[in-house]
């Protein structure tokens, strides 16, 4: 279903005695442990972040609370400057992130009531605190971007000097890249859709005649995440599902079975177990279109004939793609493949479909692989596997792995120099602000292994208490 962004929260919570026993500030309910200018960091804010990270299964190689505190201290420096620079909060993004945060928590914890119980606060209070946190994050991120973008324009001369200042072993290595063309033929998708719908209708009929939905889901569903639970998804907000799925589920009464519902994942029948507000718990049976050996044999025969004609120079690969390929994204440009994210026509090995790489791994420039079964790129947009497709692939060019050079890899080196200078600008900003800002840390954190040792100079001395 949909991917939700990582939740970051610093809302205050009361510390349970069982948690306090694991901390060096045992017995403290809440207190300020750091002051940065006119901003404060409290014990409860740190513990809130610890609680959130652990709920998501996240961990740290360093002392977790020290690492969280250091991140908060750096954020406070950017936040103070953002207010001086009169930056404004992106309200739409804040509200969108707030909704995503709450939806994921409801899904993880089992509903609004469980969220309230987990944090020990009303939903209104949590929304208010999280909105403030997200507003601060919005300003902090904008200021970081402003600092990073304030570097001087990087020129070719800068890139040359950057290269000259490094040993060859320290220069980046450009991995092997391929430039490829393809001719694609799809199986009969309409016939496969009809077949899968007929199977689902038969399963639905068995349920209506008294068989248990959960038993049939265990036997037939192709959703590995819910099949072993009898198709049960668990109580979750409707927003984390495909709209077609959630609309159908929300329209059902508990116990009722839906008609067939199509989503990008396949075809479903749904049985709602319970509904609470904009949340529901449902069972579903997912089936995906399947293709016959006849589909494969027919496509392979066509592709093999095309390959033979191309090898015999009776037909160019470009014309074969134009007249025979069924992939709209590549047929109009001679079958040339391009990366969806960057638009580049060159692919590193890990950017290729596994099936595609296995087919071309041993080929030389100009050679064409035998027909293969692969997947198209439609699923890449949704984090799915993609649709079945049959294809032949031609290797246009192979760029061997090599140490980056000014003439051959200028754009990559330019990006690296820009990123390095941006990091340096951000580091200098933090370093300067630590020196000129009033900062005091509680002695509780005097033994922290901070990335920046300058923080330790801000620890309050016993005589100052």
Overview of this protein structure:
- The chain has 465 residues and is of the alpha+beta class.
- It folds into three domains: 17-152 and 421-464, Triger factor/SurA peptide-binding fold (Orthogonal Bundle), CATH 1.10.4030; 177-187 and 291-400, Roll (Chitinase A, domain 3), CATH 3.10.50.40; 190-287, Chitinase A, domain 3, CATH 3.10.50.40.
- It contains 14 helices and 13 strands.
- It has helices at residues 17-20, 43-55, 64-84, 91-109, 112-119, 123-149, 156-164, 189-208, 213-220, 243-250, 293-311, 317-324, 354-360, 410-436, and strands at residues 32-36, 39-42, 173-174, 177-185, 236-237, 261-263, 266-276, 279-287, 346-348, 372-375, 388-399, 402-403, 439-441.
- The strands form four sheets. A four-stranded antiparallel sheet has the order 9-4-11-10, with helices on both faces. A four-stranded antiparallel sheet has the order 5-8-7-6, sandwiched between helices. Strands 2-1-13 form a three-stranded antiparallel sheet.
- Helix 2 (43-55) crosses helix 3, helix 3 crosses helix 6 and helix 6 packs across helix 14.
- The longest helix has 27 residues, at 123-149.
- The protein is flat and about 80 Å long.
- The two termini are 53 Å apart.
- The model is unreliable at 1-23 (pLDDT under 50).
Specify the biggest β-sheet. 4 strands, antiparallel
Gross geometry: flat
The CATH superfamily of the largest domain is known as: Porin chaperone SurA, peptide-binding domain
Enumerate the strands of the largest sheet in spatial order, edge to edge or round the barrel. Answer: 9-4-11-10
CATH architecture of the largest domain: Orthogonal Bundle
Q: Provide the succession of SSEs.
A: HEEHHHHHHEEHHEHEEEHHEHEEEHE
Q: What is the residue-mean pLDDT, rounded to a whole number?
A: 87
Please mark out the parts with pLDDT under 50 across 5 or more consecutive residues, or reply none.
Answer: 1-23
Number of domains: 3
Helix content: 40-55%
Number of helices: 14
């Amino acid at each position: 279903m949909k991917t939700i962004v990582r939740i970051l929260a610093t809302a205050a919570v009361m510390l349970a005695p069982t948690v306090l026993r694991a901390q060096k500030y045992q017995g403290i309910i809440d207190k300020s442990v750091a002051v940065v200018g006119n901003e404060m960091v409290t014990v409860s804010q740190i513990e809130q972040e610890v609680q959130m990270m652990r709920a998501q299964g996240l961990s740290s190689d360093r002392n977790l609370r020290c690492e969280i505190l250091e991140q908060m201290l750096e954020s406070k420096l950017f936040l103070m400057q953002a207010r001086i620079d009169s930056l404004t909060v992106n309200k739409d993004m804040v509200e969108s992130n707030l909704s995503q945060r709450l939806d994921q928590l409801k899904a993880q914890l089992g509903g609004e009531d469980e969220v309230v119980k987990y944090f020990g606060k009303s939903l209104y209070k949590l929304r208010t605190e999280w909105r403030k946190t997200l507003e601060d994050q919005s300003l902090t991120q904008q200021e970081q971007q402003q600092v990073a973008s304030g570097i001087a324009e990087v020129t070719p001369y800068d890139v040359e000097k950057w290269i000259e200042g490094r040993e060859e072993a320290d220069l980046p290595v450009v991995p092997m890249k391929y430039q490829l063309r393809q001719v694609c033929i799809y199986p009969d998708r309409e016939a496969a859709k009809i077949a899968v719908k007929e199977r689902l209708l038969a399963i639905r009929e068995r349920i209506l005649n008294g068989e248990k939905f959960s038993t049939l889901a265990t036997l037939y569903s192709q959703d590995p995440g819910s099949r072993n639970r009898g198709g049960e998804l668990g109580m979750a907000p409707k927003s984390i599902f495909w709209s077609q799925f959630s609309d159908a589920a929300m329209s059902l009464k508990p116990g009722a079975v839906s008609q067939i519902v199509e989503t990008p994942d396949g075809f479903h029948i749904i049985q709602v177990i319970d509904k609470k507000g904009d949340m529901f718990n449902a069972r579903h049976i997912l089936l995906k279109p399947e293709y016959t050996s006849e589909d494969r044999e027919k496509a392979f025969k066509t592709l093999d004939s095309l390959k033979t004609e191309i090898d015999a120079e009776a037909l160019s690969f470009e014309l074969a793609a134009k007249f025979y390929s069924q992939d709209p994204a590549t047929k109009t440009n001679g079958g040339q493949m391009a990366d969806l994210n960057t638009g580049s026509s060159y692919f590193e090995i890990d950017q290729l479909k596994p099936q595609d790489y296995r087919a071309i791994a041993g080929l030389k420039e100009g050679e064409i692989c035998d027909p293969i079964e692969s997947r198209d790129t439609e699923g890449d947009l949704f984090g799915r596997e993609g649709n079945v497709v049959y294809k032949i692939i031609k290797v246009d060019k192979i760029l061997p792995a090599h140490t980056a050079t000014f003439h051959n890899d200028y754009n990559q080196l330019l990006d690296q120099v820009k990123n390095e200078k941006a990091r340096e600008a951000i580091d200098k900003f933090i370093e300067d602000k630590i020196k000129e800002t009033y900062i005091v840390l509680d002695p509780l954190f005097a033994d922290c292994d901070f990335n920046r040792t300058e923080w330790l100079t801000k620890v309050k001395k016993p005589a100052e208490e």
